User: What shape does this take?
Amino acid sequence: MKIWKNTPKDSILVALSLAQFGVTLALAITWNTNSLPARAAGGALLTVMMTYNIIVISHLFTHVPWFVSNRLNAVMSLVNSVNIGQSVQAYQLTHVRNHHRFNNDRQGPDGTTRDTSSTYRKGKNGQHQPLMAYALGGAVDSVVGRAKDVASTTRLWSVGRGEERLLSLASHREGRRARELRQIQADRAAHCLSLVVFATLSWQWTVMCYLPAFFAALTLVNVQNYYRHYGANPEDRAADSVSHYSRVYNFLTFNDGYHQEHHLNPGSHWSQMPAVSSRHQDRLGAQPRVVSPVPAIVGFLYRSRPLLHQAGTAGTPDPHRDTPTAI
Assistant: This one.
């Protein structure tokens, strides 16, 4: 019987997901007996695991699920919803069906962007929003959203009528739509019940470690997304995002650095990204685009980054005046 939808290599991602789940429980269990340095190290580890899962593991899963079996995929969605503190199915809808449809677009005549995660959404004069406002503001919005998820216990965590964004992104095919909305409900239930378990094991760990680590991870993920698009040309489908081709980084992150290629072929499996790059070599080389020498999460280090998004926006301010050089 075939288990893997694409390749057994995805078993590594499954193992990392299960390992994170186990380590998180261990951190909660041992909090009260750990020394202060061990607690600090545990908090840093939790932040890194959450950040990595959102950027790499769950991101890959939302585009190309790992298993042939829908039930196994549903189980992995539950596990990683606990790991990242939010519904993976909801992440799939907002990321794949919104971000990858509108590709970090600029504000339109209505003064907003169609991509709700666009770095231009709250920017001015055709520029990206300043980094810290985007990263921290986005994290606050996410925390508020997750708090609302937790508060939806009265309807058993189902998607409410007022959640127009999710409802609009869910499939219009009746059977598939029902499955997606049920999965969001199950993901939320798993996350909320995990919070109960964490608080039972150690409410101090939950308040002083888990919640700060969650907020820090959301902030870092926003920094990553910011520099995946900062300076790119949103009007050019072959230059609307930023790639990073370090072999070490791409080995450790399952080819996450091939972001422009990912935008061109978001349904391609992570193992195919180098082939996608080769296939689009002529197109990618036909116009200026931003290729970063550093990973996006430390993109602020690339000070000489081309600002292709400023083309045709003469008179606009230099975004570096509003963007901090450090985080």
Summary: Residues 43 and 209 are 6 Å apart (CA to CA). Residues 36-63 form the longest helix (28 residues). DSSP finds twelve helices and no strands in the chain.
